[in-house]
Each structure stands twice: as C-alpha cells, then as structure tokens.
Design goal:
With 502 residues, the chain is an alpha+beta fold. Strands 13, 14, 17, 18, 20, 21 and 24 form a seven-stranded mixed sheet that branches. It has a four-stranded antiparallel sheet with strand order 1-2-3-4, with no helix packed on it. Helix 5 packs across helix 10. Keywords: Calcium, Metal-binding, Repeat. It comes from Cyanistes caeruleus. Belongs to the copine family.
Length: 502
C-alpha cells in the first residue's frame, strides 16, 4: 500500500496461545484483538487465529470493528495477508511494522532422468507453497541449466512469507522439469519439504529423492528419478522503509513550482495559477495531496519551497531557483500551509516568464543531500510543472548525479500538455543516462495530475489516488540507496508490554 496502508507483517510479533486477547501495540487509541479457536474436527489441534482492530474508548459500551484479518488454520505462527487501509493519516502507527525475513537458497541435483532423445536434460525446479485449502501456489522458478543430469542452480533469494506464509512446518512442494522450447516441459519428479527442514542447511536431512508417481506405480523396482541436494541456506532480515523511518531517518521535503508564462495569467480563471476565493488551483491541490502525507515523516515540518521560470524583484532577472518566502538564506516554510501561503504571495510579486528549466532545483536539493550520506536523512524534491522541459540534457545529467545521493524526485504534471519528456525522466522502462553514464538508481516518479482530477463528488477520492501514485516509489527508492550503501536502520528497543492507563 505504499505509504498509505498498514501491512500485517508485524503480527509475527504476536504469540497466539489459543485464547482471545487484547494487545496495545499501535497507540493509546487503538486496540488489536487476537482471537483463536481449535478446529472442531480434531481433539488435539493447533489454533486457527485471526485478528480484528477496533478503537479503544473506555467510555464506549459498543466498540465497532474497523476490520479483521482472514483466519489461518492450524498455526501458532500466523502471518496475515489482510491489510487495514482505513487508518488514513494515522501514520504514527506504521512504525510498528517490522521487516520481513528473506531466505537465500542454493540447490544441485544428481543423476536426474534423461529426457532428451539427442541429449541429456535441461532441468529446472518450480517451488510451491501450500495454501489453507490444500492447494499449492507457485512461489519461485529456478533458471534452466542446459544439457546436464547433474545441474547446479544459482542461489536465489525469496521472502520467507512467500515460501511458507510464515508457517515453518507447512509443506513446500518442489517439482523438477526438463525444459522444452515449445513449452511442453517434461516432468521429471517431485519432492516435499518445509521451511523448518530447509533451515537445517546442508546435511543429510536435505538430500531429497525426486520421485515421479506414475513411474513408481508402473515399475516395482523404481527408486527415484534422481536426487536434489540443498547446498546452502541463509536467512537475513529484509529491512523495510518503515524500519528506517522508525529508526530515525528523516525525510526532507522540498517543493519546486513552475512559474513559467505557459501557465497563463494568474488573474484569469483559465490560468493554472488562478487564485480563486472558492477552490484551490491545480498547483495547490497537488501540493496539498502530496504534502499532507509526506509531512508526517518530517519532524520539524519545515519545507524549503522554490520557484523557477519567473522574473523576480527587485531587478526583474529570470530565476530558476528563487525562494517562495523571499529569503534566499533560508527558503524553508512552516508546514504545508506555510508553503501554500508563500506560493500565493509569490504569485502576486513575480512575473511569470520562462523557460522551463529543472536542473537548477534538482542541483539545489542534491547539494543538501550530498552533505548527509549516512542514511540519517533522505531528500525528496516535488516538482510541479505544466510544460515541456527546456533543459533536458542538463536535467538528465543532474538526475544521473543525484542518483548516487539519498534523494528522490517527484514530478507532477498539471494542465493538458504532452509530458513525453517527463515520462522519459521517470526511467521506469529505460534508465536515464547522460554522456554515456547510466543512472545508478531510478529516483524519478512522474504522475500526470489530470489522471486523478475528475472533479465533482469523486474529486476527493481522486486526490487520494494521486497521493498514493505520487508516493508509491519513495519507499523502494529509499531502500535502494540504503542497500547500495550497506546502511542498516537503527535498532529500536522493544516496547514495554505494559498497558498504558486510559
């Protein structure tokens, strides 16, 4: 859910003991209830837990439920998939989410069946996790190793959640195939294991006979179709965006607003900068939608705000990096409300001009980001613009250089212009490059504002969609920087289990 949903990975911290309970782990105003009941068909069964979330109010006799998870059968270590999205802007509660574990495994095989008439086999393996209803879901497929009956597959990483859904004793089925070009892969055999077995690592416990059930039924002397051996098994914590936020990483949010003349005369209702007494213009709406969410991750709520593409007083020179509050030594505004106020004041004192240059504001934030490389701060630049970029080559170079820094760039395009250049900067399909140098990371997210502003009664929902889309890539971009630099989140001491007084 990007920044807007509450994932339930953190329920691993709960020890379900077969009884109902209430756990205060989010904030004083929320209660997490864990309930569990034994299976009626089995006298000595494990628990079948689920969780529901309700507000905590000591004065209320009737407590509504905001939602509940699915039920997981026969497990004392449930890993719930259901997400609670109702929390809206209660972002302080997200710090309770913990990182997920990632397992890295490597396998080899020995004396697999020969399936190709003019060769050996081209084996690969398919891993399946078991579901509550007894079915299996594919969770990983290895690469194909060509022309061998004794393949060694490359090590691969997979979230433990994907491998066994958090239940270490749940069956994991592995099928071995001989690859065929036409897609009609030949089945060699299968075996089953579990996370708990695999966690033993390389040993005689993790040498598996690959069995073809049809062959076993037909041939009395059939033993197996080869063996598969686990060569290595390691588990590491996969840190999340919220682990870093919880550990103290601060997001520094900078706004850059397009003041070029193509936006139209601000005194005219047709202008994208028109200041109506009745409603916010496109720039204000975009700023509010993104800023209201991201400001919750910035402790001091002071946001540098810049303008570009205008003639500024007192001498009327064109600037692509002027402070909206008029203070070049400290362009920070107090909260999103302060940014909006400074933006509106700037519209009354500057002359919209041009061209549309991005590189100056990108480099402005990059200079700040270059001073803090230890992971304690991460910088986000929000550019709101209406036009076709004028300094594409310089901006590409600035972005390629910024990709090495703790920094992300969000571009929101307003108006009806074609934004092909912005899509190119986004780099989702083709990583941008400059002077033959490819960007180390994808740090740009472009979103066209018009896709989310339907107007009328649904406008509010479109605003929420805009915020989700704009912020969707920030967590992964932050993680990509931290991982590339080997920066781990600061560990947080465990919270007290004592229930706070009402």
């Amino acid at each position: 859910g990007g920044l807007g949903g509450v994932s339930e990975v953190f329920w691993r911290k709960l020890r379900v003991l077969g009884v109902s309970g209430t756990i205060t782990s989010l904030c004083p105003h929320l209660r997490v209830h864990t309930t569990s009941s034994p299976c009626p068909c089995v006298s000595m069964s494990l628990s079948t837990p689920h969780v529901f979330l309700s507000p905590h109010c000591p004065h209320c006799s009737h407590i509504p439920q905001f939602g509940r998870t699915e039920v997981i059968d026969n497990s004392l270590n449930p890993d719930f998939l259901h997400k609670f999205d109702f929390l809206g802007q209660a972002f302080c509660t997200l710090g309770e989410i913990v990182g997920s574990d990632v397992a890295t495994l490597q396998f080899c095989a020995n004396k697999l069946d020969k399936k190709d008439f003019f060769g050996k086999s081209d084996p690969f393996m398919v891993f399946y996790r078991s579901n509550e209803d007894g079915t299996f879901t594919i969770c990983h497929k290895t690469e194909v190793v060509r022309n061998t009956l004794n393949p060694v597959w490359a090590a691969f990483a997979i979230p433990v959640r994907a491998l066994c859904n958090g239940d270490h004793d749940r069956a994991i089925k592995v099928e071995v195939y001989d690859w065929d070009r036409d897609g009609s892969h030949d089945f060699i055999g299968e075996f089953t294991t579990s996370y708990r077995e695999l966690a033993r690592g390389q040993s005689h416990f993790n040498v598996y006979e690959v069995v073809n059930p049809r062959k076993k039924m037909k041939k009395k002397k059939y033993l197996n179709s080869g063996t598969v051996t686990l060569l290595s098994f390691t588990v590491e914590a996969e840190h999340t965006f919220l682990d870093y936020i919880r550990g103290g990483t601060q997001l520094n949010f900078t706004v850059a607003i397009d003041f070029t003349a193509s936006n139209g005369n601000p005194s005219q209702p047709t202008s994208l900068h028109y200041l109506s007494p009745f409603q916010l213009n496109a720039y204000s709406l975009a700023l509010r939608a993104v800023g209201d969410i991201i400001q919750d991750y910035d402790s001091d709520k002071m946001f540098p705000a810049l303008g570009f593409g205008a003639k500024v007083p007192p001498d009327g020179h064109v600037s692509h990096e002027f402070p909206l509050n008029g203070d070049a030594s400290n362009p920070a505004c107090c909260g999103i409300a302060g940014v909006l106020e400074a933006y509106q004041r700037s519209l009354r004192r500057v002359q919209l001009y041009g061209p549309t240059n991005f590189a100056p504001v990108v480099n402005h934030v990059a200079r700040s980001a270059a001073m803090v490389l230890d992971g304690s701060q991460y910088f986000v630049l929000l550019i709101i613009t209406d036009g076709v970029i004028s300094d594409m080559a310089q901006t590409k170079e600035a972005i390629v250089n910024a990709a090495k820094l703790p920094m992300s760039i969000i571009i929101v395009g307003v108006g009806q212009a074609e934004f092909d250049a912005m899509v190119e900067l986004d780099g989702d399909d083709i990583r941008i490059s400059s002077r033959g140098k490819v960007a180390e990371r994808d740090i740009v997210q472009f979103v066209p504002f018009r896709d989310y502003m339907s107007g009328g009664p649904g406008a509010g929902l479109s605003m929420a969609g805009l915020a989700r889309e704009v912020l969707a890539e920030i967590p992964d971009q932050l993680l990509s920087y931290m991982k590339a630099r080997g920066i781990k989140p600061t560990p947080i001491p465990p919270m007290s289990s004592e229930t706070p007084p009402p």
